[in-house]
Amino acid sequence: GRHLFHQPRPLILDSSLSIPIKSHVVRPGTIIFTACLAKKKIAQKEQFILLGCDVIEIKTEKNGYLNLDEILKILAKRGISSIMVEGGPKVWSDFLRQGFVDEFMIYLAPKVLGTGVQTFQDGDIASRKINVREVRKFGNDLYWNGFL
What we know:
- It is built from four helices and six strands.
- The chain has helices at residues 42-50, 68-77, 89-97, 123-126; strands spanning 11-13, 31-35, 54-58, 104-108, 131-138, 141-147.
- The strands form two sheets. Strands 1-2-3 form a three-stranded parallel beta sheet.
- The longest helix is centred in the middle third of the chain and has 10 residues, at 68-77.
């Protein structure tokens, strides 16, 4: 039989529309959320649209970051009810702080890369208890799945 596999759509949060046009995620179906654009970015926005991306302009919070609540409401109207968040400490902390995280899927590789990268931005978020549902070992890598 033929298996149907749904390829996830990339969703990019880029308030200043600074993603390189040649990035591998710039392709048909990609949704790019950006702040209300200055005139100098209009040509770049049009390039993304010509490459099949959907560029959505939304307002930012007072701190200059994109409004996550507005993003999730727009996605829900488009029938997207589940997203996987990949990002840095700021993005992860914002999703957690605003109560938008249901589940964690964490992959750990036994590699030391310099001093490392801080996982979350705020200590109060980092100290929250995660209930572990599953732990697996893939070679030397670890995967664990949990929820708040």
